[in-house]
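Run folding on both entries below.
>entry_1
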Amino acid sequence: MSQDTLIKLRCEECKNINYWTTKNKKTNQNKLELKKFCKKCRSHKLHKEVKK
C-alpha cells in the first residue's frame, strides 16, 4: 500500500483552497508550506496544508 495521500493547500490571506497535491505522510511528518500563485489575490502567497 502506498503512503501517499491527497492534501489541500489553502492561501493564508484569502483562505481559498487553490491547490491539491500528494504527500507521503510516512516521510514528511510536518505540514507542507509552499509559496504559490493565488488566483483571488492575484499574487504569490504562502499556501499551507489543511485537513480534508
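>entry_2
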Amino acid sequence: MGRTTDTRLQDPLVLDEIELYGELVIVASSSDRPLSQAEIDQVLGLSRCAD
C-alpha cells in the first residue's frame, strides 16, 4: 500500500530549498576537501557582487 501525499502540505519554496540542499550535499560528498565559499555559492547559483 503506497503513501498518499496531501498536496496542501507542499510548499514550493521549501521544495526548492530541499533540492538546493541535496545538490550541495552531492557536491560536498564527492569532494576530498571542504568546499570553499565560492564553490558553495556556485552550487547554490549565487554570484558575488563586486564591492
